[in-house]
Each structure stands twice: as C-alpha cells, then as structure tokens.
TrEMBL record, chain A:
Residues 115-218 form the LUD domain. InterPro entries: FTHF_cligase-like_sf, LUD_dom, NagB/RpiA_transferase-like. Gene3D superfamilies: NagB/RpiA/CoA transferase-like. This is L-lactate dehydrogenase complex protein LldG. Coiled coil: none annotated. The lineage of its organism: Bacteria, Pseudomonadati, Pseudomonadota, Alphaproteobacteria, Rhodospirillales. It comes from Novispirillum itersonii.
TrEMBL record, chain B:
The keyword Transport applies. It comes from the Bacteria. Gene3D superfamilies: Alpha-helical ferredoxin, NagB/RpiA/CoA transferase-like. PANTHER family: LACTATE UTILIZATION PROTEIN B. GO terms for molecular function: 4 iron, 4 sulfur cluster binding; metal ion binding. This is L-lactate dehydrogenase complex protein LldF.
Length: 221, 478
C-alpha cells in the first residue's frame, strides 16, 4: 500500500507546472447585504419551494411578539399528523416534558440514540445550529446531545431554528463562525425533505430520508 | 485497468443501436430538455455565471497545481480525524483494499451510495464474486442494478428507462404489481425495500464530491438521503474517490457546490450536503465506528503529467456537458461503453483507458462547443478532443496512452495533398475543376467515399466554382 502512495506522489511531483488563473473575485459570493427581514423571507421562500414547512413562533416565555409558542405549534402539528412517538434532542427533552406535563394528547417524548428505536418512531425533533437564507437550508450539527440518525431515519423531521442564527450564505456561516478550525464528525445541510427525480424526472418527496420537514422558526432577533 | 488492453470498444455499433431505439431516444430527449431548462433558470444572470465559473476554474486549477501537497495534507488531516487513508494505483489494488476491510470484519452485506469511481472498479461484481452482497441505494442506481445495466448518465443513471419499463422490472425482480405504478409508488417500493438494508448492513460505501485538505473533511451531496444513510447507520463507512478531486480549503467548497448543483439538476442546492470529518468520537452517540478513505489513481497521474490534458481533471462531475451534447442526447449513454459518457467521457475515457481501446471517442463530436459553454469549471473540451485526435494520429507529444495507435498513412497523404493544393492557386483551380467533373460521376459507393457517404448524402458539386461565378458577376475583390 505504501508503494502505491509513493508511486502516485512521485508521478505527480514529476509533472511540470500546470495552468493556473489569477486569484478570483469572491465578491460574487460575499456580497449579500440582506436585512434580517429579507433573510427571513428568502429563507422561507427557498425552504418552501422544496416542500419544507416553515411556521413562525416564539420561545414559550416570550410575549413580545404575537406569535404562538413553538411547543404549542409542535403539539398541534403532531396531533394533526398522527405523531404518537416523538424522538427528541437531549437538550429539548426536559423543557418539553415540563411544558407538556398535564396537557392531554401529547406524543410520547423519547430520548434515545438506539438505532432500532429511532427507525420505529414517528418523528424526530432536533435543533439547528443555523440557517442559510440564500438556499433555505438548515445547518444540522449533531453530536453528543443529538444523534445523527435523529434527523434522518424517522419519517418526519422537525427542527427548531432561531432567526438570530440565520446567515446570508453558506460561505458566511462557514467563515464567520470559523468552521475550518472546529469541524465535528458530521455537519449536514438539509434543504427540504428527502427527494428524487430519478424516475422520468418526476419529483417525488420522501425517498430514504424524511418525507416531511417542519421548521419551527423561532423569532429571537 | 481491468479491461484487456487491445480490445477495441465498438462505438459505432453502440451509436447505431442508440439511434434506432425510439423509446430510448424519446426518454433521453425529454430528460435532457428538462435538465437544460432547469439549469438555464439557475444561471439567468450572465454576469454572475461568468464570475462564478471563473472562481470555480481558479479553485480547481489551484488545487491541481498543488495536488501532491494537498493529498499529503488531506491524508494528514483525515488521519488526525480518525479516518484511515488508503492509496490505490489500479483497480485491483483498490478492490483488494475494500475486500480486505470487509473480510477482516466478517461483513457480508454493504449498502452503496452513488459513486462513479466504484463503477470504474466494477466493485459490485468483484465483491459479489467474493460472496459479499453490494446493494446500490441511490434510486436510479438501484433500478439499473436490478436491470443488470451500467449507468447511462452520471447524475441520473436510469434516465433511459420510463416508468412502465421500471414497473415491469420491479414486477420481475421484486414481485410487485406491474400495473398502475407511477413514480411515487415506485419510489415507495424502493424506500421500503432499502430501509431494512440500511438498518442491518455491515458497511456503507460512498463516493466523495469534495475532499477538503484543510480540514480532512469529505463532502458528499445528494437528494435522497441514501448518502446520509450509508455514511451514518452502518458501523463501517468506506469512501472512494479519485486523487484529482481534492480541494484546498473548506471555503473552496462553497462556489463549487453552487456551480455543481445548479449545473447538474438546476437546483440551488441539493437536499443534503454531508460534511464528514471522521468516525464517531468522544461522546458522539452514533455514526460509524470506522471511516476509511480510498484514494485512487487509475490513470489520473498520467493525465496529470501534461499541463494541457491536466485540465480534464478539473471536472466536478455535474454532467451539464452531456445534457447539452447533440451527440449524447441522440445516442444515449450506453453507446460510449466506458463509465463516463458524453463529452467529458470522450476526453476522459480514452485518457484513462487508452486510445487503442477507445479510438472513436475523440472523433464522435462536431466540435460545436456546447459542452464548453456550459462547463462550470471551464474545461476546454473541444480543444482537448482535437488534441486527442492528434495524439491518436501520432501528431501530439505522445503524452496520452496509446498515442499514435490510430495513425493512417492514407490520411496523412490526403492531408498533405490538400495542403499542397490549397497553397497553390494553379493547383487549386485544376483540382476544383476536376472535382466538378469527376466528383459528380463518382458513385457514393466508391471506395474511401463509402465510409463517409454511409451516413450522409453525397453532395452535388456545382458546375463551376463560387470563385468563378463571382468573377463573372463582376465582383472585383471577392
């Protein structure tokens, strides 16, 4: 194996210099002077264009805006879609339990990283590290408190996204937060539910990943 | 390579079959029209397109200019992240590496994400021969695996089949009903079949769109979630990628991503962009326990050795060149025989596998330049086709494998005669007069002429030359 490595590198090093271009102009990516309102609208338009559902809400203790609390929206959506078993991200389990205690018809809150359990639940609830306005994408950053499978294997994915965490583009999200110095094992950008056009270019949602993506957009900016 | 060195691919037979298959032509026409329209919508602002692709070209050429250093850096950072890095010069080495990893762990079933490199390796057949079941998980790949075919398009592998053909295939292989199945119902069948496979497979195998040297990150883009499944659920993840794909910095991914998804399927972004930087670590709750990266050469270092042909390696595999190619749209992907069809295949396949095996690839083009206009990283495909034609005739630098294998003394003599005639006014006049006299009398089936007229109507020569006609009309300085 080490021979292969040495041979390949030797051949590459023996090659003459190739063609290069002068440093390019990155402004085509950088120049996005969108206000917060523009970013929110852009995010919503782009996410909805690929069948994600975006519902505006606030934190449970926030009375500053005439918007419903995210846990109420979540409960209503679970009821409407027959979600009885909801797997949740660890930091959300205790607050949700507290908010829902005593309320009737709430789904079971399941806190697990067990593969077979996650394959059998009705929906997964995760946080989002941020959002990308340009493309309507969620930045998922699974780790010790949130299994990777939580946003992947249940047929429905519900994500909490704070408006203060919106970035104009992926480039902004990446460079302003210094991703290059702290990449976790897995980062996923998710834009809408899973889809395919492999059969006659007919768009079908829900292939191997979730069939439905609900984004609870929490206004906190 | 795994092919016999001098077994020539019969491109002409493939073209003939493709042109006469009316279902195939209808399926392709519809698909390519759709893809072209969607792409055009994404690049409506010509200024943005120009600036973005200049950036894309710069990033790819910068990466190639430092390729050996970046590969070492990629290896170092992947290793630091806990990814095992392997190197393979040829198909046999790469297959042996993967087989070794699987056999050591007693793995008998693997699920696969889409990977063109694994097609170069004929990996599924190889593993099958060693009692390991390799199951394609991308819907299009799943369909063609069931059908026992090769992909006919690098982004949409099953685009040559319509839903009736797929419903019949599923009925035959999976026992589902062939009647009344639309795309949604067929997708649901595949979802159900594959879900259990993802849950229980011993390993997942994927390709890589952008390996990042700076961070040791493997970027993988996809819409279906199969890429996430194969890289997340099984305990072992094996990624395979060509050495040329590496990019220098994490931020380099952003313009390339934008160019790739918009050029390929007309999407602003794919549903999923996976950025994988190692197996589970620390307190991570899931993800594979092991991640392997197999870096493959398979002739790429030879393509790299020449500064002009090296531009072939800028490719980010968007397939826009095939979607816009008047030849590809009509003959379909299977006619090309190699793993990579269309314009990029016409320059890449003969360079990787040799001009002796693929002698007709460089000539199957009118040099219309449609591919060059849509290439998001500005690969001069037409210029490269001409270069390969020269190499085949032994008129290049000899840098390409099997250079000179297609030389023809007759062709040389013909071009020499042409050059002599066109550089002497007297010879030119005599020759054109002779052409009129003899040319029209000559039957289309005459030797030498036959090869050309077999697919074209023989032209009728005018009674006198345009030159002369104009002179008679009194045009003094034509």
């Amino acid at each position: 194996m080490s021979d292969a490595r040495a041979n390949i590198l030797r051949r590459l090093r023996a090659a003459p210099a190739g063609i290069t271009q002068p440093s390019s102009d990155w402004s085509v990516l950088r120049d996005r002077n969108w206000s917060m309102e523009e970013q929110i609208e852009r995010f919503r338009t782009m996410a909805e264009s690929v069948n994600a559902r975006v519902i505006d809400c606030v934190a449970p203790d926030d009375a500053s805006r005439p918007l419903p609390s995210w846990d109420a929206v979540l409960a209503e959506d679970c009821a409407a879609n027959g979600v009885r078993r909801l797997a949740v991200s660890a930091p959300l389990a205790a607050p949700l339990q507290a908010l829902w205690t005593g309320s009737p018809n709430r789904p079971d809150i399941i806190l697990t990283a067990d593969r077979d359990t996650l394959f059998s639940v009705d929906a997964g609830l995760t946080t989002a590290r941020g959002g990308i306005a340009e493309t309507g994408s969620l930045i998922l950053w699974p780790g010790p408190t949130e299994p990777r499978m939580l946003s992947l294997v249940p047929p429905r994915h519900i994500a909490l996204l704070r408006t203060s965490r919106l970035h104009p583009t992926l480039w902004h999200a990446m460079t302003e937060n210094g991703w290059a110095g702290q990449m976790p094992t897995n980062v996923v950008l998710a834009t809408g539910p899973s889809k395919t056009s492999d059969i006659e270019q007919t768009l079908v949602f829900g292939v191997h990943g979730p069939k439905d993506l609900l984004i609870l957009l929490i206004y906190d900016h | 390579m795994s092919h016999a060195p001098h077994q020539t691919h019969d491109f002409r037979a493939g073209i003939d079959a493709g042109l006469h298959d009316t279902t195939l032509r209808a399926n392709f026409r519809r698909a390519m029209d759709g893809l072209m329209t969607k792409r055009a919508k994404q690049f409506e602002d010509p200024q943005e397109w120009t600036r973005l692709r200049a950036l894309g070209q710069e990033i790819r050429q910068r990466a190639l200019s430092k390729l050996p250093d970046l590969l070492e850096r990629l290896e170092e950072n992947c290793t630091r992240n806990g990814i095992h890095v392997h190197w393979a010069e040829d198909v046999a080495q790469a297959n042996a590496i993967i087989l070794g990893i699987l056999q050591q762990r007693g793995i008998t079933t693997v699920v696969k994400g889409k990977s063109m490199v694994s097609e170069e390796m004929h990996l599924n057949a190889f593993l099958g021969g060693h009692g390991i079941r390799a199951l394609e998980a991308d819907l299009g790949e799943y369909i063609i695996q069931l059908a026992g075919q090769m992909p006919c398009h690098i982004v949409m592998p099953a685009i040559h089949l319509n839903k009736t053909q797929i419903a019949d295939l599923f009925a035959d292989k999976l026992g589902t009903s062939p009647d009344g199945q639309d795309a949604e119902a067929l997708t649901a069948i595949a979802r159900e079949k594959l879900r259990e496979e993802f849950r229980t497979a011993g390993a997942g195998i994927s390709g890589v769109n952008f390996p990042v040297a700076e961070t040791g990150t493997l970027c993988l883009i996809e819409n279906e979630g199969n890429g996430r499944m194969v890289t997340t659920v099984p305990p072992v993840h094996i990624a395979v990628t060509g050495i040329e794909k590496v990019v220098e910095n994490l931020e380099d991914v952003t313009p390339l991503l934008r160019l790739l998804t918009r050029s390929a399927t007309g999407q602003p972004i794919t549903t999923y962009v996976n950025m994988i930087s190692g197996p589970r670590r620390g307190a991570d709750q899931d993800g594979p326990q092991e991640v392997h990266l197999v870096l493959i050469d398979f002739g790429r270092s030879r393509v790299y050795a020449d500064p002009e042909t090296r531009q072939t390696l800028q490719c980010i595999r968007c397939a826009a060149c095939m979607n816009h190619c008047p030849v590809y749209v009509r003959v379909g992907g299977h006619a090309y025989g190699g793993v990579y069809p269309g314009p990029i295949g016409k320059i890449l396949t003969p360079q990787l596998n040799g001009l002796a095996e693929y002698p007709d690839h460089p000539s199957a083009s009118s040099l219309c330049n449609a591919c060059v206009e849509v290439c998001p990283v500005k690969i001069p495909i037409a210029q490269m086709l001409v270069r390969l034609r020269n190499e085949k005739a032994g008129k290049g630098t000899g840098a390409v494998q099997d250079a000179g294998s297609g030389g023809s003394l007759l062709e040389d003599a013909a071009w020499k005669a042409w050059a002599t005639t066109y550089s002497s006014p007297l010879a030119y006049r005599v020759a054109s007069a002779a052409m009129t006299a003899v040319g029209n009398a000559l039957p289309a089936s005459a030797p030498l002429l036959k090869a050309w007229t077999s697919v074209r109507t023989k032209p009728r020569f005018a009674a006198q030359s345009l030159h002369r006609t104009l002179k008679e009309m009194g045009v003094a300085d034509e």
